[in-house]
Amino acid sequence: MASAENAKPTCPVCHQADKVKTTQAAYNSGVTRCAPPDMPTKQVTMTSYISACMVLVGICVFLIIVFIGGLENNFPQPAMLALVITTIVCIITSLAVSYYAFQRVVRGDNEVSAYYPAWDKAMATWKNWYYCSRDEVVFDPQTNKVVSSDQLTKVREFRSQPDALKTALAAHS
What we know:
By secondary structure, the chain is of the alpha+beta class. It has 2 domains: about 45-110; about 115-170, no CATH class. It has 6 helices and 4 strands; from the N terminus they run E-H-H-H-H-E-E-E-H-H. The protein has a 4-stranded antiparallel β-sheet with strand order 1-2-3-4. Helix 2 (about 45-70) runs antiparallel to helix 3 (about 75-115). The protein is rod-shaped and about 95 Å long.
């Protein structure tokens, strides 16, 4: 005897349950209409900052080698001072650029985490829906109504819901 929880709901169009499956199963079988909402991500590029820091550190290494070689050859005192100051400036600049890049990553992570509550809500809604392959409709078994294309799009594009985002961003500030 099957429990009521495991019983498939009936389609509101054909009133049968034999071709009904979850939206996850429908998506796995190739029905792209039943695609889940994409998990929020943000790509913060670090390559340019890391490359700039590598060049600055390379300059520092070169200047230190020149400075050490200049000690044996009676390198002029003002030139040595200029090399030391330039090396210190390059090191401090590399540290400042690294700090800035790290802050960009943290800011990007905070912006993405503001979308997680809206994504969780969209996923919960999506997981409760079913798909009837006979009628090719997505429906909500709780209301026993067909889900429109606009509703499917709205759930997939949960990032465009400004109220949820403003509330989440205010909580992180």
